[in-house]
């Protein structure tokens, strides 16, 4: 892939980056490397944004992202600065990549060996093994073309898609239709369809509203592998922060921003408690809607409140972090528990918001791979149930759902947790809103629907405030740790382009 655009025009500029999630950290590194004077302000007590860590009584939990996918993106990111990820953290490849418990009693493991996965598919449906090969060929082509032409290249205007080169590449991509329609062309068995679509949970969509282009995630899953950074995703945050410090970024935690005033060449970013940081340019990695609606005066907002109200948001989540005595043997490092028909669960997220009656959910047991995240003789476990953003989130509702979830885990995996719990913390809709200023308590931001993909996502550069930019999951390329890393590069490039003309 091409190297990032020259960022030399940013040398000597002072920049405040608001928010220390992966998008903010990435942008800060690119800007500092280009010679800018970069200050990053983080609202909370630690850097990483949604990739926060919870440490309680010898247990260390990744509070947010826990899958390390698309290792090529991390290699490219560190490579831009003449580094390698291995200088900052080590990786272990998982085997199995993940385990699925279907709620009819069926259980499958997806593994690094493609031939074994093909045999698994064939056992469900004659011809499905070869169909998997064909599907992954398409997925690989879409990944390579899509990453080169549409992920690493920012195309914010309709005319950016109109040149012959773009149209030539577009013909080879699955740009139209939904994931459900695309997967049905290859597999009839509903369980195989679910296996090919589980990543939609991490993109914040459903099979019926996510573009078919995202079949490229199957190449990531089956061909590129699933890894674990020793110590958890938090060690990746530590690595990027260490890189940022080497490049000269100044990091400040416990600095909630209350107002962005001024314009290019004369910004003042004011924090709770009366602090003020002056800058030539500002980048926000905070929740986009929060930035516009709360940090800017009305005349400086690009989008009215009605715009944000009309958007489709990715799910929120009910999370419970558990320190458990003993082993949880039936579970793998990554485990999915899926109803054989998950349409009702997606409907309860996107169509008729409600706490799910028969949820699909994810269980993570990093202590299967890393003994350091739990005391000896104990297991580190968290459960994540995607739920609709904006749901009523009360202690009573959480307590009732906890009992429902523990019953479901025991019934479908055989793991009885209740009498072995020594640490327990929950995190839900109101916590996402409070800790991350997340609109409607979404865990991820804007969903990747057909009408919210590519140039249809919010602008990377403010059209109302000269010198204000955005990075992170609301912008392109979108949701997920790798995408947010790439957003940092794209935002820095846009800043350099506009700085050349100002």
Automatic annotation (TrEMBL):
It holds the Pfam family Amino_oxidase. GO terms for biological process: carotenoid biosynthetic process. Keywords: Carotenoid biosynthesis, Oxidoreductase. The keyword Oxidoreductase applies. The keyword Oxidoreductase applies. Pathway: Carotenoid biosynthesis. Residues 23-495 form the Amine oxidase domain. The gene is crtD. This is 1-hydroxy-2-isopentenylcarotenoid 3,4-desaturase. One of its GO terms (molecular function) is oxidoreductase activity.
